[in-house]
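RECORD TYPE: protein structure
NAME: Cyclopropane-fatty-acyl-phospholipid synthase
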Amino acid sequence: MADAASRLSRLAEQMLGVPLPVRIRAWDGSQAGPPGAPALVVRNRRALRRILFKPGELGLARAWVAGDLDVEGDLYSALEAMASLVWERGEDARTLRQALRDPVVRAGARDLLRLAGPPLPPAPPREEARRPRRRLHTRHTDRRAISHHYDVGNDFYELVLGPSMVYSCAYWEDGGTLESAQRDKLELVCAKLGLKEGQRLLDVGCGWGSMAIHAAREHGVGVVGITLSQEQAAYARKRVADEGLTDLVEIRVQDYRDVADGPFDAISSIGMAEHVGAERYLEYASQLYALLKPGGRLLNHQIARRPQRDETAYEVDDFIDAYVFPDGELAPVGTTVTQLERAGFEVRDVEAIREHYARTLRRWVANLEADWDRAVRLTGPGRARVWRLYMAASALSFERNRIGVNQVLAVRTPESGASGLPPRTRTWNTA
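PREDICTED:
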């Protein structure tokens, strides 16, 4: 008799201590759970073995990437329902070990193990980053981490990002398109930096060249764009050539620590600082400070997490670290501002644009889902599933204020202290 779904639902509720907010559809065709709720599809017993071997987020992620788990119905609704059971409960291995002291939970785990069957454990999906955890954020490990995320095919990123090829938060007006919102974001950065014709801009983490091209074409600025991704650099150079901007824009495969041809009038760092790491952040800020002329401006556009009561206990997101941004780290915006000031900068402005990133991510997910079969052909089913889950979950995280994104404008104040009036870039709605 087909009853795997009922058994799974009952065991999960025993172990979690709360009713499941999703239905379960199991490999034997059985279903259980609240009618009309999104369904968690358990395609095989291997999904259970993955979760048992790596309880919490990483086990669920491995099952998802491998195709052992799926969602039937709206992905956002399913993630909203699951958030209170996984991400917001902190169901990591340590928490589960503590829960297993409860006889009811321990008995449920034994029953789940019997249902999962041998052998344990399954190999992780090939899309999972594998690297030593000892020395992070060296030039070598940073290059490898960047390659894991960005060197998955420019055609795939074109499908997701659209023609703008901007892989960071857009800046939305009501009714605007993704392309117009990304153009407005680039122009906002240029306005905050006060770019003028003939100036020199360093674009750190230049991606596929969109900021460099916009600054050169619209403001007559000479730009040096740096990235660690070979595929990004090749794509950006072709775009620069096609725009006829080779006399203004140079794209390099170069680590920010190796730039030695300053000073620059301005520096943009858009969606790059998340890769730097807490131990290297002061070095990063100090290097950018040294590359600026006195009076020069830095625009640091960076995702932030909420601060915790015990910052020493902070752990990176298992799924993001294993499949999306290996070695990436998020810091509270206050920490970022402090580190910039420690490096010598005067922070002049901080603009929070969290809601803008949620909308951006939903547009990227829509692009991916609209051309899903091609995405799978371009990058494989596992990688496409990684991107769909990560972007949808991130959209919800921005909407729920679990993470944010901020543009920090900082100045290398000249010795005289007079750096002119800051740029006027915002109009406040006081109604």
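COMMENT: Residues 4-116 form one domain.
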